[in-house]
Amino acid sequence: MEENLNVTYLTLDGHVEVSKYRYLYFMTFLLVYVLILCSNCTVVYLIWKKTDLHEPMYVFIAALLLNSVLLSTNIYPKLLLDFLSDTQVISHQACLLQYSLIYLLGSSEFLLLAAMAYDRYVSICKPLHYQSIMRRTTVCVFLAAAWLLPACQQAGLSILSAQQKLCSFTLKFIFCNNSIYKLFCVTSRAITVFGVFIMSNTVVGPVIFIVFTYTRILLICYHSSADVRRKAAHTCLPHLLVLSNYFCLFMYEVITVRLDYDFPKAARLIMSLQVVLYNPLFNPFIYGLKMKEIRKHLKMFLCLDVTKHS
């Protein structure tokens, strides 16, 4: 810990041999970050630019990819600076902000996936009522709720956390997550209860809703034509793939921090990175390659770009 003008600094002790491999780490993660920005922003741009993609399903995909960009930007720039620094530290206030944004955006991802599941349910199971149910107003309400609900809840949790006295100043991770609770002198019952409440309505609740929704879709498709089953598989499989991957990584990160498992530093580093690596990096490829309309516009966009430079 360092004290300067009443600023408390925390040490990020999750790095592995950063002094030896700092430039390799820096170039690798810089490349990953640029790839995340370019791939996600390209799909978001196509959805924004092409009017035939202005449908609820594609709007939710764009919101999900934008959410991934924000999550990555919350972590990667600081990570890149740490690779080039002799000491990996962060102020207490900045740490609280980073950890709050991680869980805010993580919760938003589950809520956006729940909105996408509902959209697919209405599209496949109630096609005649789709236009009347999934209106622009409905989509805007879902999007606002996906970001504002976690933001309000996480703001309250952050205020409670900021009021806690610290007795330790070293985090075992490379970025700030809920391991910050381990630094408190006294475990706060209010923070624990509020944290469980937030997780129940922004993670567990949406996941249960998504599983229920896709179960209903599968049951209905089982008794439908081959064309309906093919449509359901084509649109639902990417969502289920993203959900299962993100839920497993998210719950791993939360549970291991809370139970304070004594993992080797290298293993902890790898698992921590997967939380902020897999979905931001692979989501645009999953949706860009699996969704027919996005793939079509992406091919046209890339071909046009090549033609302009030839």
Automatic annotation (TrEMBL):
A Pfam family the protein falls into: 7tm_4
Protein name as it appears in the record: Olfactory receptor
Gene3D superfamilies per record: Rhodopsin 7-helix transmembrane proteins
PANTHER family: G_PROTEIN_RECEP_F1_2 DOMAIN-CONTAINING PROTEIN, ODORANT RECEPTOR-RELATED
Key words of the record: Cell membrane, Disulfide bond, G-protein coupled receptor, Glycoprotein, Membrane, Olfaction, Receptor, Sensory transduction, Transducer, Transmembrane, Transmembrane helix
GO MF annotation list: G protein-coupled receptor activity; odorant binding; olfactory receptor activity
Compartment list: Cell membrane
Bilayer topology: Multi-pass membrane protein
Top-level taxon: Eukaryota
Similarity section: Belongs to the G-protein coupled receptor 1 family.
Membrane-spanning residues: 23-48, 57-76, 96-118, 139-162, 191-215, 236-255, 267-289
Domain G-protein coupled receptors family 1 profile: 39-287
A GO CC annotation given for this chain: plasma membrane
Main location: membrane
InterPro entries xrefs: GPCR1_Superfamily_Member, GPCR_Rhodpsn, GPCR_Rhodpsn_7TM, Olfact_rcpt
